[in-house]
Amino acid sequence: MNRIQKFWNDLRSNFWFVPSIIVLVSIALAAVLIGADSTASRQWLGQWPRLFGSGAEGARGMMSTIAGSMMTVVGVSFSMILMVLALASTQYTSRVLRNFMRSRETQVVLGIFAGIFTYSLIVLRSIRSGDEGAFVPSLAVFFGFVLALGGVGTLIFFIHHIASSIQASSIIASVAYETMAAMDRLFPEKLGQEPEVELDDSIIHPLGERSWHPILSARNGYILNVDTDALLSVAREQKTIVRMERGIGQFTVQNTVLFSLAMEEPPNNKTIKALLAAFDISSHRTIEQDIEFGIRQIVDIAMRALSPGVNDTTTAVMCVDYLTAIMARLAPRPMPSLHRHEDGHLRVIAKALSYDGLLAEAFDQIRSNSKGNVAVMRRMLGGLQTIAALTARPDRRRAISQQVRWIADIADRTLDYAQDRAEINTALESVREMLEFDPIGEHENDMEVLPLIREWSDKRPAEPCTRETGIEAMRRRAIDRWENEGGVILPPEPGEPRGGARVSDSVAARGYLTP
User: Which of 24, 85, 234, 493 has its CA 20 to 30 Å from the CA of residue 325?
Assistant: First the structure.
C-alpha cells in the first residue's frame, strides 16, 4: 500500500473528515447565495412574493428556528450513535466499533446536520434591518428552508439506518464484504515479480555468502500495512534482500527483530530509516491489508453468540455462512509466494498468509465451542463441502478433510441423541464424497475443471456436488470436447455401469480423453 492510499484510508477512518467537508461546502454555498442575493434584481425576486417576499424579522426567525432545531437533532444523533456503539461492543465484539466509526452513511448524516446549522448561522448573520440598512438574502433564506426539509428526510433515513445497522446480519455482512473487498484488492497484486516456479533460496541467490543483519522495531503495536514499493526500492538500490520477520497483522514488540537484511556490511542509518518507514505500526488492526482480522471479527461474534450467557445459535450459523463465503472466494486463488522478485533477482522474503492458517482461523474456535450444537456442526460441514467444491489443490483439500475429521470427533463425543448423530453422519457422508471426488487427479495445476464445478453448482444450487454427479457432468463435457476434436469414442467394456465411453474418472475429470 503506497503512502497516498494509506493517507486516504486514515482520513476515511476519521469520524470528522466527511462532516468537515460538508460543513465547508455549506459555508461556501451560503456565501455564494448571499452574494447572488446582493447582486440580483429586486424586481426579479419580487415576481414570486410567496417564495422570496419575507421580511427581515420573518427571515431571522425562520433561520434561528432552523439553526436551533439542527443542533438539537445533532445532539440526538450523537446519542443514538453512542447507544449503538455500546450495544455493539457488549452484544457482539468491541472490534466491530471501528466499522461503525467508518460508516459513510453516519458520517454523511452528521455532516448534513452540522452543515445546515452552519449555513443557517451564516445566513442569519447577513440579515439586516432598520438603521443597519435593510438587507434580506431572500434566495439564501429560501434555500435554507429547502435544506431544513432535506434535514427532516435525512433524520428519517438515519433512524432507519441505525435500526438496520445494529442487526447481527448487517454487522456480519458488513465485515464479510469488507474482508472480501480487501481480498480482491490484495491477492491480485504482486510484491515484485514472482517466478514461474518457486525455487529454493540457495538456488536463487547465494545467500550463504551474506550475513543477515537484524533491524529492530522502533515501537510496540500491530503491523497495519507495508509500503511494498519502498521495500523494493531500497532492496534494489542496496542490491540486498529484505526478509520480513513479522507479517501484517502480527504484533511487534519494541527492540525486537522486525526484518533482516542480507548484506556483507551492516546497513547505514539512512537505509534503516527508509525501511522502518515502510512499516505502518499502530495500536489497532485494520482490514485493508489484513484479511485475517476480518475473519477474526466474525469469529469473535460467533464465539459471543455461542457463549452460555447468550446462546444465540442463529447468529453463530450466520457467522459460519459468511466465513464460508470468504473461504470459498479464496479457495481457487493462488496464495502469494514467500519469495518476491524483480528482474529475476530475489528482493523480498515476505511473511505470507497460508490457506491452511486462514481456514483454521475461521473454523477452529467455532468448532471447539459448538459442542452439542448440531445446527452449527451441520452448517460447518455444509460450508466445508462448498469450499471443497471450489478448490482442487491437494493441500487445501487435505486441510478441509482435517477440519471434517475434527468435527466428526466432536460430534461423536458431545451429541447424545441418535437423531442428531444421524443428521451429522448424513452431512459427513456428503462432504466426504466431495473430498473423495478429485476433479483433476494428479494434475493440481490444471484449473480447467473449476468452471465446470461452478457451472454445475449454479444450475443446481439446492443439490450437493457429489462425486458421482460431478464426475458425470465433467465426463460428458470431456466426451463432447473429444468428439468435436475428431477423437474416437471406444465402446464400453462389459459390465460397465455407464455407457458412452471407456474412460477412467480421473482422465474424464481432466477435461480430455485419450484414444
Answer: 85
- Closest Cα partner for 344 from 190, 196, 228, 238? 196
Distance CA 466, CA 488 (A): 28
Q: Where do the H-state alpha helices sit in 40-167?
A: 42-45, 49-52, 56-91, 97-101, 104-126, 138-165
C-alpha cell at 144: 435554507
Grid cell at residue 175: 465485515
Helices and strands per DSSP (H, E), number in the chain: 21, 8
Q: Count Cα atoms within 13 angstroms, Cβ side, for 270.
A: 3
Give me the sheet containing 251-252, strands edge to edge. 251-252, 221-226, 279-282
Strand partners, 252: 221
- At residue 135, φ and ψ (nearest 5 deg) are -150, 120
Residue recorded with cell 473487498: 181
CB 92 within 8 A of CB 168: yes
Query: Other C-beta atoms within 10 Å of 353: how many?
Result: 20
C-alpha 397/C-alpha 379 separation (Å) is 18
Q: Quickly tell me which residue has 462432504 as its cell.
A: 431
User: Element (H or E) spanning 34, and its range?
Assistant: helix 17-39
Q: Please compute, for residue 95, the number of CA atoms within 13 A of its CA located in the half-sphere on the CB side.
A: 19
Sheet holding 339-342, edge to edge: 211-216, 257-263, 242-244, 345-349, 339-342
Handedness of CA 440, 446, 449, 454 (dihedral sign): positive
The set of cell numbers assigned to 427 is: 452431512
pLDDT of residue 491: 45
Q: With contact defined as beta carbons under 8 Å apart, do 359 and 399 qualify?
A: yes
Phi-psi region of 129 (alpha: psi -120 to 50; beta: other; left: phi over 0): beta
C-alpha cell at 183: 481480498
Q: Nine-digit cell at 237?
A: 538500490
pTM for this one? 0.70
Task: Please list the ranges in the chain whose pLDDT falls under 70.
Answer: 1-6, 9-10, 12-13, 38-55, 95, 130-133, 187-210, 437-515
Nearest CA to 278 out of 237, 244, 238, 255 is that of 244
**Residue 38 CB partners (closer than 8 Å, separation 6+):** 135, 137
